[in-house]
Amino acid sequence: MSASQPSRRTVHVPVLLHEVLEQLDLQSGLTILDGTVGAGGHSSRIVNAMATDCRLIGLDRDSTMLTRAAEVVTDARAILKQASYAELPTVLEELGIRKIDRALVDLGLSSDQLADEQRGFGFDTSGKLDMRFDERTGQSAVEFLQTTDLDELTRIFEEYGEERHSKRIAQTIIERRNQQRPVTTTSELVELVIAITGQSGKSNPATRVFQALRIAVNQELEHLQYFLTDGLPGCLNSGGRALVITFHSLEDRLVKQAFRDTSTWDNLTRKPITATPSEVRMNPRSRSAKLRVAVRK
Q: Please, which residues have CB within 8 angstroms of residue 138's CB and are 6 or more apart in sequence?
């Protein structure tokens, strides 16, 4: 990056930071995973708090976020790689690391991603609908909307977004596609949803549809399910801790069910840890964050 092109300052604020550092129970000699390093909010604090003989592996599917993270996570004990946390077994093999001792995954979408006009994550932008975390692979949201049939679109909006008007929204998307007027930008999708559902309430009516589409495009639930039941248990040392921060019920349900497996985990959070009122006032997006913690048997 040249001096004439300075990086934009991150606008993301890591959630439940105090609680994460407390639950990580940092000791000497640990190998720590931040599976969703983002702009480095959690990782930079973990590196500052960990002992000199510890090391941190920071993963993210989004190369733009890794670039931001590299600006604040500069310690030689930290390794940053572009990969999904679901690829942990492969990453460890490539690094010559047998197992890890701590794992943190924050499943929230970064404020930097939401603000990026070119990515299509946020409904307050007007850019092209892409929504991929890793732009090297998979279908963009535009391609997904152009190739997915009515029943599948309806199911996705219902299951992943809990959208009451799922079928009408899916039908309208298909109709526009058939008329050679496909939905290709965030503003077009927002306008379509508002025309069907109406503008009401504090949140944007398109919130649920955007969430559902992003989950589908990135196969987020599939990645999480594999990580919880196959990837992480085999990579985490006995006595190691797993911390997962979720932001909606679909994710939280998967984590809660996984940590109930008493043959694999000692569940430390029967009820999830949530943000304090003071954190919610300072960072409203923390309102829906839920942290669950378990120890590998």
A: 132, 217, 218, 219
Segment 272-280 long-range contacts (CB within 8 Å, at least 24 positions apart): 272/246, 273/16, 273/19, 273/23, 274/16, 275/15, 275/16, 279/15, 279/16
Q: Which of 30, 37, 113 is nearest to 71 (CA)?
A: 37
Q: Between the CA atoms of 59, 135, 15 and 10, what dihedral angle is there, to the nearest 10 degrees?
A: 100
Beta-strand relationship, 236-246 and 100-106: parallel
How are strands ordered across the β-sheet holding 100-106? 78-82, 55-60, 31-34, 100-106, 236-246, 290-296, 265-267
Here the tokens at position 106 are: 């924050």
Residue 73: Cβ-neighbour burial (10 angstroms; 0-12, 13-18, 19+): buried
286 φ/ψ angles, rounded to the nearest 5 degrees: -75, -10
Count CA atoms closer than 13 A to 174's CA, side-chain side: 13
Name the amino acid, one letter, at 289: A
CA distance 266 to 56: 23
* pLDDT tens figures, 95-125: 999 999 999 999 987 666 666 666 767 766 6
- pLDDT 10s digits, 225-237: 999 999 999 999 9
Cα gap 241→24, rounded to integer Å:
7
CA angle 47/271/289 to nearest 5° reads 55
